[in-house]
Amino acid sequence: GGGTGSGAAPVVAEVAKEQGALTVGIVTKPFDFEGKRRMSQATDAIERLAENVDTVIVVSNNKLLEIIPDDTPIERAFAVADDILRQGVVGIADIIIKPGMINVDFADVRAVMNNAGTALMGIGIGNGKTRSEDAAAAAISSPLLDTTIDHATGVVFNMSGGPGLTLAEVDRAARLIYANVEKNANVIFGALVDDSMGETVSMTVLATGFKKKEQIKRKTLGDVVDDHIKKTTTPIVERKVTPPPPSPVREEPE
């Protein structure tokens, strides 16, 4: 919103994309108290950036106020937002770089993020009996992101855990993700066993290809109406009506 990064980022992104690079923009929106003009500049810059990148991930600083305690020092509050940006960069790189039992390579990430528009990037950590579900839920519901995984059509998720990570845990986490994306979404899965993680499970999720809210609303409303009509309308059965026999003609006496 200040003008420096806002002006330069779309230009740098355009050059990178022209060179054939997969271009991902991870940006923050200012706090409301920074003023309408700064917010307007940031919004315009994000729109220009989105035209010159494959994918853009937007973090809303103002949502910090909803998740941090009131007594959090201002430096710590800004550090939280910076850490979300760090997670975005490191998370995408780790999916590609770290080898696992089921690898996700750069081609997989490009397939989901190429010309994908708005994206969600989240990292979640879980412990205990429901660690896999907790990690997946945290990864897809970061309160600082401006979108949710709902109706995503492209998803890459990578699960990491210690030697005790079970197939059942992977399955439960995957089910939670599948329940929140489009039915025919392109979902790419990776798994990594890392001895250093011990009893902790980590989940990294990249989701793209979101439909516009208006399209989702219309489709949902149409489905509801169609289902209601099918359930409440009595089918019309065609019946053949046999005409009555002609009445006998009575002759009047002369």
Features:
254 residues; alpha/beta; four-stranded mixed beta sheet; three-stranded parallel beta sheet; 8 helices; 7 strands; 42% helix
Q: Would you write up a description of this structure?
A:
- With 254 residues, the protein is an alpha/beta fold.
- It has 8 helices and 7 strands; from the N terminus they run H-E-H-E-H-H-H-E-E-H-E-H-E-E-H.
- Helices cover 42% and strands 18% of the residues.
- Strands 4-7-5-6 form a 4-stranded mixed β-sheet. A 3-stranded parallel β-sheet has the order 1-2-3, with helices on both faces.
- Helix 7 links the parallel strand 5 and strand 6 (186-193).
- The longest helix is centred in the middle third of the chain and has 24 residues, at 74-97.
